[in-house]
Specification:
This protein is an alpha/beta fold. It has helices spanning about 10-30, 45-60, 75-85, 105-110, 125-130, 140-150, 170-180, 195-200, 245-250, 260-280, and strands at about 5, 35-40, 65-70, 95, 160-165, 185-190, 205, 225-230, 230-235, 240, 250-255. It has a six-stranded parallel sheet.
């Protein structure tokens, strides 16, 4: 079987072009969507992510404000900056790049962000809204996965959706989003009794575990749709996902590549959240 590639790069470009149009219409009303990005310390991966986000903002016409604090910044410094951005009427979205240095509580920082500006969708109020089906911001990676499936017209309703990994950032919210789309959802994790058996039953398999090439052909049935959220750097510096692409692709009907699958969609949905935030203002 030759799988269809779920091309996150091309799809995210389409979304960004759509947003560009929305932003130019907002500009006619004097509204400029604005994202404030806070980064603490010098984690190289975080700086790459922030650069990509700024580039996307620039392309779409979103104004981005950058606040770079050293790793010596105190928790109070970060919290007061967030408070300041909460009360700034020009800022539509606030993004604090994680991970934060160990002396700063990520939970406290997330709790301090105004839910109306929580474009990352991590605030407990955003998560609560998602779980009961109320409108609110949805965290960007799960939102991107759903959008990718929809844009390739992959049916979710009535399908058996298996997720491997129960993180607050991907596993749990994607479970709720798939339920919202009427999928039948199984959420697996390190204590799941027979992981291979659960995965082999999946019509849609989502791998979000952070373990290179863990999902092999033994975990999938023919015709499965595979979404690989993992991004792992190997010793030779190449990137790979949580799925062993060479082994799994021949069995799949659709599969996301790594890189170029879920990653670009995450940024596209962040931009979508920022523009939506400006629209409801």
């Amino acid at each position: 079987m030759n799988p269809m590639i779920l091309d996150g790069k091309a799809t995210s470009k389409k979304i960004k072009d759509e947003l560009k149009e929305k932003v130019s219409m907002l500009a006619q009303k004097g509204i400029v969507p604005t994202l404030a990005v806070v980064i603490v310390g010098d984690d190289p991966a975080s700086h790459v992510y922030v650069r990509n986000k700024k580039r996307a903002c620039e392309y779409i016409g979103i104004k981005s404000l950058s606040y770079e604090l050293t790793s010596q910044a105190s928790e109070d410094d970060v919290l007061s900056l967030v408070e300041e951005l909460n009360s700034n009427p020009d800022v539509n979205g606030i993004l604090v790049q994680l991970p934060l240095p160990s002396h700063i509580s990520e939970e406290k920082v997330i709790m301090t962000i105004d839910p109306k500006k929580d474009v990352d969708g991590f605030h407990p109020i955003s998560v609560g809204n998602l779980s009961i089906g109320n409108p609110g911001f949805v965290s960007c990676t799960p939102y991107g996965i759903i959008e990718l499936l929809k844009r390739y017209d992959i049916p979710i309703s009535g399908k058996k959706c298996v997720i491997v990994g129960r993180s607050n950032i991907v596993g749990k919210p994607i479970a709720m989003l798939l339920l919202r789309e009427h999928g039948t959802v199984t959420l697996c994790h390190s204590r799941t009794a027979d992981l291979k058996k659960e995965c082999r039953e999946a019509d849609i398999l989502i791998a979000a575990i952070g373990r290179p090439k863990m999902i092999t052909d033994e975990y999938v049935k023919e015709g499965v749709v595979v979404v690989d959220v993992g991004i792992n750097r190997l010793e030779d510096n190449s990137l790979c996902g949580d799925v062993d692409y060479e082994k799994v692709a021949p069995l799949a009907s659709y599969i996301t590549p790594v890189p170029g699958g879920v990653g670009p969609m995450t940024i596209a949905m962040l931009m979508t959240n920022v523009v939506e935030s400006a629209e409801v203002k």
